[in-house]
Structures are given as structure tokens and as C-alpha cells.
Specification:
It is a single chain. By secondary structure, the protein is an alpha+beta fold. It contains five helices and eight strands; from the N terminus they run H-H-H-H-H-E-E-E-E-E-E-E-E. The strands form two sheets. Strands 3, 4, 6, 7 and 8 form a five-stranded antiparallel beta sheet that branches. Strands 1-2-5 form a three-stranded antiparallel beta sheet, with no helix packed on it.
């Protein structure tokens, strides 16, 4: 049986894993020749990643309450009790870190494991025992096709071992690729309309698989379709 990848798949599990690495790394930095700057960088990465995951989860948890409040002030009969405006508890963000937290982490783990002083006890303490990569996940790549269905682009894709797919679109409006949707049940129909008075435009699409809350594998090849203004 293939050795399991040491890095957890879900974002919540990654928070726990990265916080453990950040807290335990100082204990082994001298043995492994890891600089103070690298230890500090990992700690900042852990703080920022934990903050962002908690922030996203707070927004998700509060969405229903805020939608209900919006509906009350929008359409409820006059005299309906409104209550206090929902707010988020403000927590100052940690130091902003460069993009690529887990690119840096994987590189650090590779360097740690190649150090002559590294041993299994250190690996267990840092939570890095396991395969360097999950090759099957890294190789996952959606194959997209597109056709017009009632004048709307229908993105055709197969789910395979993924839970869903993140789709991106370039509508030729100078914005390049922007997030379109997450789809968990093939296929996906893009219901947007042409804007800025255009009568015809070429729209391009690409996608990447998700397993649980994590984008995995590689982006699909680009596909395109010519969309015409409805008469």
C-alpha cells in the first residue's frame, strides 16, 4: 500500500497541522540547522492561515443570520421587530505573508528530511512522517468540453474521484480569468448575458478539481465557445 501523504487534505486539518509545525519547529531548529528567520516565517504563515480559515468560517456561519436580517428590513411588515444589526467581532489580522504558504512548507519539509540529523522521532514530533506527495491527487486534471444549450454555454465535465470543480471564465472583457462557480453535479450551465452592448463574444473556461475544501491537481486545458446576444 502506498504511503499516505503527510499533509492533511482539509483546510481545518491543515490549520492544526501547521500550528503544530510552527510550535515544535524551534525545538529542532538547532539540530536541523534551521535559521531563526525560517522559524519565524513558518510561525507567521501558521498565524495568517489560521486567521483566514477562521475568518471564512465566521462569514459562512453568520450568513444565514445576515440574510434573515436583510429580508426583514427589506420586506417585513412595518412594525416588525428588527433587533440589533448583525456584526462580526473585529480581530486584528496578523502580519501579512507572501503567497504560497504550503509551497514553502513542502520545500521546508523536503529540506528537513534530507538533513543528516533528521530521524523518525523528529518527524513524528513535527507531523511530517509520510509520503512526500500524493501522486494520484497531484495528477488529477479535469477534461472540459463546452456546447451551447439554448444559447447558453454548458460546461461538460466528469466528477471522477473529486467532490466538485471550481470553474473560471474569461469573457474577453479585459478582466482575464475570474471565478465563476463551484459545481458538484455535472454539468454546469453559464447563464450570464453579454454585456457592454456586445452582440458576440468568445468566452473561455478552465477548471480545477476540489476534494472537500481543497483545490487539488492541475487546471484543465482552456476551452472556448462563441456566445451571441439573444434576440
Amino acid at each position: 500500500m502506498a504511503k499516505q501523504f503527510y499533509l492533511p487534505l482539509t483546510e481545518e486539518a491543515k490549520v492544526t497541522w501547521l500550528n503544530n509545525l510552527a510550535s515544535k519547529l524551534p525545538n529542532h531548529s538547532a539540530t536541523l540547522g534551521i535559521s531563526t528567520e525560517t522559524v519565524t516565517s513558518v510561525q507567521k504563515d501558521a498565524a495568517m492561515f489560521s486567521y483566514m480559515i477562521n475568518l471564512v468560517n465566521s462569514f459562512k456561519a453568520g450568513l444565514s443570520e445576515r440574510v434573515s436580517y436583510k429580508d426583514i428590513i427589506k420586506n417585513a411588515p412595518e412594525g416588525t421587530a428588527v433587533g440589533p444589526v448583525p456584526v462580526f467581532n473585529h480581530i486584528a489580522p496578523p502580519t501579512v505573508v507572501p503567497a504560497g504558504i504550503f509551497i514553502r512548507v513542502r520545500r521546508l519539509v523536503k529540506n528537513i528530511k534530507s538533513n543528516p540529523n533528521y530521524n523518525e522521532s523528529i518527524g513524528n514530533d513535527l507531523g511530517i512522517i509520510g509520503a512526500e506527495t500524493d501522486d494520484a491527487i497531484l495528477e488529477m486534471k479535469p477534461v472540459l468540453k463546452v456546447k451551447l444549450s439554448a444559447g447558453k454555454p454548458e460546461i461538460i465535465w466528469k466528477k471522477g474521484n473529486a467532490d466538485s470543480i471550481d470553474l473560471y471564465v474569461d469573457r474577453g472583457d479585459g478582466k482575464s480569468y475570474v471565478y465563476l462557480a463551484n459545481d458538484s453535479a455535472p454539468n454546469y450551465t453559464d447563464t450570464a448575458i453579454l454585456s457592454n452592448g456586445a452582440n458576440v463574444s468568445e468566452w473561455k473556461y478552465k477548471g480545477i478539481y476540489r476534494i472537500k475544501d481543497e483545490q487539488v491537481g492541475q487546471f484543465s486545458d482552456e476551452i472556448s465557445v462563441v456566445v451571441k446576444k439573444e434576440v
